[in-house]
Write a structure and sequence with these properties.
Elements: E1 8-12, H1 16-26, E2 34-37, H2 42-51, E3 55-57, H3 61-67, E4 70-73, H4 77-85, E5 94-97, H5 104-111, E6 118-121, E7 134-137, H6 141-148, E8 153-155, H7 159-168, H8 172-188, H9 193-212, H10 220-226, H11 233-243, H12 246-259
Parallel strand pairs: 1-2, 1-4, 2-3, 4-5, 5-6, 7-8
Antiparallel strand pairs: 6-7
Helix pairs in contact: 8-9
The protein binds NADP nicotinamide-adenine-dinucleotide phosphate.
C-alpha cells in the first residue's frame, strides 16, 4: 500500500484555489489520499465530489477537521480569524494555510496549536494541471512528497523569503492588467477590441514560451536584448516605460503589498 493511501486531506473553504489543489491531488497517479471538503462553496464541493470518487463533502468545517490528517485552510483572509477560533484542532494534525498575508504564528494562535503544526503554501491555479512549483514554508516531508507530484515544490528558507514568493504569485492580476492596457491601446488605435485582445494574448504566450526555452533561470536582460532591435520600436517602448516610471510603479505596488503581510520577518 502506498505510504499515503490512508491519508485524509481536508479543505476549509472550497473555492478556486481549493478546487485547483483537489484536482492536482486527484490527478497525480501516485497520490491516493482521501479528500474531505467543507460544504462551502456547495456547488464547487459537490462538483468535485461528482468528479472524483475519493472526494466527499462534510457536513461542517469541524467535521472536515475531525476527519483529516492534513487540513488546508483556503478561506479568504477577512473571515479566517473568526472561523479558525471557532474550530477545534487536534494534536498531530498538519495545517496548511494558503492565506497569503497571515503569519504562521498567527494561524497557530487562532487554531490554538503549536506553530510547528502550521505550514504556509502558495498554490496557484496552474497546480490543477501540475504546472509550476508551489512555494512552501517550512520544510515538511509529507507536504513535499505531495507537492512534488503536483508540479513541484520550492521550500523557502524563512518566512520572509516565503512572503517574497507569495508576492511573486501576486503578479497574476497585474499581468492581466498590463495585457489589458496593451490591448486597450491597440483598440484605441483602431483595432477591433477582440482582435486587439487576441493579438496581445498570442504575443504574450509566445514570449512566455521563449522565456521557458531559457531553462529554469531565464536571463531576462538577454531576452529583452534579443527581442529588441537596436534603435527599433521594442527598445523605444521599453526605455520609455522605464523612464516614465513603469518599473518603479510595479516595484512600489509590490513593496506596498509586502507591507500588508505579517511581520513574519520577526519570527
Ligand atoms: N485564487 C488564487 O489564485 C489564490 C492563490 C493563492 C492563494 N489564494 C488564497 O486562497 C484563499 C482562498 O482563495 P480563493 O481564490 O479560493 O477564494 P474563493 O474562490 O472565494 O474561495 C473561498 C471559499 O471560502 C468559502 N467560505 C466562505 N466562508 C466560509 C466558511 N465560514 N467556512 C468554509 N468556507 C467558507 C466560500 O464559499 P461561498 O462561495 O459560499 O462564500 C468560497 O468558496 C484566499 O486567502 C486567497 O488569497 C488564492
Amino acid at each position: 500500500m502506498p505510504w499515503h493511501a490512508a491519508l485524509q486531506c481536508g479543505f476549509i473553504g472550497t473555492g478556486t484555489i481549493a478546487a485547483a489543489v483537489v484536482r492536482a491531488l486527484c490527478g497525480a497517479p501516485g497520490i491516493k489520499a482521501k479528500i474531505i471538503l467543507s460544504p462551502r462553496n456547495r456547488q464547487t464541493a459537490e462538483q468535485l465530489a461528482a468528479e472524483f470518487s475519493r472526494v466527499r463533502v462534510a457536513q461542517s468545517n469541524q467535521a472536515v477537521i475531525d476527519a483529516s490528517d492534513v487540513v488546508f485552510i483556503a478561506l479568504r483572509r477577512q473571515i479566517v480569524q473568526a472561523e479558525l477560533q471557532a474550530l477545534q484542532f487536534r494534536t498531530g494534525q498538519t495545517l496548511v494555510s494558503v492565506v497569503p498575508t497571515i503569519a504562521r504564528a498567527q494561524i497557530a494562535a487562532w487554531c490554538r496549536c503549536p506553530i510547528d503544526a502550521v505550514c504556509r503554501a502558495v498554490p496557484l491555479p496552474f497546480i490543477a494541471a501540475h504546472q509550476g512549483a508551489t512555494p512552501l514554508f517550512p520544510a515538511n516531508a509529507l507536504l513535499e512528497k505531495l507537492l512534488a507530484q503536483t508540479g513541484g515544490v520550492v521550500v523557502a528558507h524563512d518566512e520572509a523569503q516565503f512572503d517574497a514568493f507569495m508576492l511573486g504569485g501576486s503578479m497574476m492580476g497585474v499581468y492581466f492588467r498590463f495585457a489589458r492596457a496593451c490591448a486597450d491601446w491597440l483598440h484605441g488605435q483602431g483595432l477591433d477590441a477582440a482582435q486587439a485582445s487576441g493579438y496581445v494574448a498570442q504575443l504574450f504566450a509566445n514570449l512566455a514560451r521563449a522565456a521557458q526555452q531559457g531553462g529554469a533561470a531565464p536571463d531576462f536582460v538577454a531576452l529583452q536584448d534579443e527581442y529588441s532591435t537596436a534603435g527599433g520600436t521594442n527598445e523605444m517602448v521599453a526605455q520609455g516605460f522605464a523612464a516614465l516610471g513603469g518599473v518603479q510603479a510595479l516595484h512600489q505596488a509590490l513593496n506596498h503589498a509586502l507591507k500588508t503581510t505579517p511581520d513574519s520577518k520577526n519570527q
